[in-house]
Structures are given as structure tokens and as C-alpha cells.
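Structure in, sequence out. Go:
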């Protein structure tokens, strides 16, 4: 609901803020920018977290790997399917 209100009022949504943090991390890979990315990502309602990068196939794996580590890719549905 907060994101809908923000969007209707022309303000950045939590996903917009996270995308900005992701872009900032790509430019300046520091622990500070990683922490900002984590804070921004975790501020997004859980049901919207998998589509921040607007790619339903990757389900934000690039962001989650930065935040939570390389093991995140093991939970990616495409990777699981490929293993079988």
C-alpha cells in the first residue's frame, strides 16, 4: 500500500530505491553500498522482492547474491531444474 501511494504521488517506491542502491553498488562496491542495498531490498514488501530488476527469470538473484552470498544461486528455480 505504501508503494502504491508513493507511485501515485510521483515519489520513488521501495523497488525504485532498491534499484538505485543496486546501481550505486555496481559503481562503488563497498561494504557501505552493500549495506544500503540490503536495507533497501529488505524494505520491499516480500511479495514484490523477486521482481526488483524487472526480470521474472532471474528473480533478483544478482541482488540476493550480493547481499546474502553466492549460495543464493542454489535456491534459484532455474538452477534447481538444471540440476535435475
Amino acid at each position: 500500500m505504501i508503494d502504491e501511494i508513493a507511485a501515485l504521488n510521483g515519489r520513488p517506491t521501495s523497488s525504485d530505491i532498491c534499484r538505485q542502491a543496486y546501481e550505486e553498488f555496481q559503481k562503488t562496491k563497498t561494504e557501505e553500498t552493500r549495506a544500503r542495498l540490503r536495507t533497501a531490498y529488505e524494505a520491499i514488501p516480500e511479495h514484490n522482492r523477486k521482481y526488483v530488476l524487472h526480470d521474472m527469470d532471474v528473480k533478483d538473484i544478482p541482488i540476493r547474491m550480493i547481499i546474502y552470498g553466492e549460495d543464493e544461486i542454489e535456491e534459484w528455480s532455474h538452477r534447481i531444474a538444471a540440476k535435475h
